[in-house]
Amino acid sequence: GFKSDEQFKTQKEMILFLKENKFKVNEYEKKCLNLKEIKDKIREIDVLRKKVDYLTDGVVIKVNDFELREFFGYTNKFPRFAIAYKFEAEEYSTILKEVVWNVGRTGKVTPTAILEPVEIGDVTVQRATLNNYDDILRKKVKINSRVLIRRSNDVIPEILGTMDEDNGNEIEIKMPTHCPYCNSELIRDGVHFFCTNTLACTPQLTSSLVHFSSKNAMNIEGLSEKTSELLFDKLGVDKVYKIYDLKYDELITLEKFKDKKVNNLLNSIEESKNVNLENFIYALGIKNVGIKTAKDLAKKYKNLDNLREATVEELLQINDVGDVVANSIFEFFNDEYSKDALDKLLEKGIEVIPYKEISKSEFTDKKIVITGTFEKYKRKDLEDIFSQNGLIVQSAVAKSTDFLVVGEKAGSKLKKAQELGINIISEKNLEEFLKSIIEK
């Protein structure tokens, strides 16, 4: 194989390139010029999808022109240049055989229905979603009852209710009282039940490790769910801060852990010790706090010490933070166990980088593209520096691009930038360029 820095002007060009290079590309794609053509194509695919040997849940409608895509940009979560149209859901009936209760990262205990197998769209369905115990009561579902299920968007089906058939064998689903994993007594909060045994409940601990190491959190590569379970079972990593105590001699004894894998994991753990405030807040796994709220908290409080002293009244002043979220944050930073765990985490040498207000400068909102490899810098580090100093990092060179940062094996992005007269920053001049941005 080979790596190409090929640039495309349109989606059609990219699809053609993939076809020419023997990639498998879905044949059901068409360039539409107006809304009527889009609707006609959707109806056509809705008929055709029942004849193909793979599952579909809808149609993605995208802007064809890549430069126009750059103009539209992204929201916090989604591209503005694309939208998904979902097909209507299919409904079937089957028998509810059992309900199992699962425990997540926050300790929330949720029910899953085990069904008598039923074929839906060439797929054998054996599980369905039941949101909570109140949902079970409202839908009047019981063990051995015939239930109506809906499979929308080709994802895990949900139970809509019973078919009102009393077969005489129905059994009431009991309200959970103890954790199905550690047998701790559950507490109820609203419609949900929670296991409060954060010290020894395996699903909570392994899920916490995975969340803590995720890309938007501490960005520790190699800490999958399977690896987290292994660290918990074999090395006793039952708190997130214990990740930073891991040693080579311990890890090398684990199954499928060779020298390279161990060193990569240890290096990634060490690199994670320097972390931006918003990423660290998100890594803590505070209930109801996603990455957007973490960024909002970082922007308001600037550093971790200020956030730890936050009051509910202050938190409520933040846009999109209501009573539930404000109380979750306040309770986390005032809970003795959480405070102790946080202190121990910081004792491991973690440096939480304070939020830096981006001041207006000649670089504010300038668009920059990175290409090639660099001897001194990782691409992710460069992206962070540019973003933190007000620049907008683009994935492709366009007329709107202001700078192209070039490393080894730059490819066609360099050629296009030269054709467009874009400012080019070589690795030789990169350090000086970074200095001018940071000291602006």
From TrEMBL:
Query: What are the entry keywords?
Result: DNA damage, DNA repair, DNA replication, Ligase, Magnesium, Manganese, Metal-binding, NAD, Zinc
Query: Which reactions does this protein catalyse?
Result: NAD(+) + (deoxyribonucleotide)n-3'-hydroxyl + 5'-phospho-(deoxyribonucleotide)m = (deoxyribonucleotide)n+m + AMP + beta-nicotinamide D-nucleotide
| EC number(s) from the headed UniProt entry | 6.5.1.2
What PROSITE patterns does the database record attribute to this sequence?
BRCT (PS50172), DNA_LIGASE_N2 (PS01056)
Q: Spell out the SMART domains in the cross-references.
A: BRCT (SM00292), HhH1 (SM00278), LIGANc (SM00532)
The biological processes this protein is annotated with in GO are: DNA repair; DNA replication
Annotated GO molecular function terms are: DNA binding; DNA ligase (NAD+) activity; metal ion binding
Biological role stated in the UniProt entry: DNA ligase that catalyzes the formation of phosphodiester linkages between 5'-phosphoryl and 3'-hydroxyl groups in double-stranded DNA using NAD as a coenzyme and as the energy source for the reaction. It is essential for DNA replication and repair of damaged DNA.
The molecule here is called DNA ligase (NAD(+))
- Organism equals Parvimonas micra
Q: Corresponding gene?
A: ligA
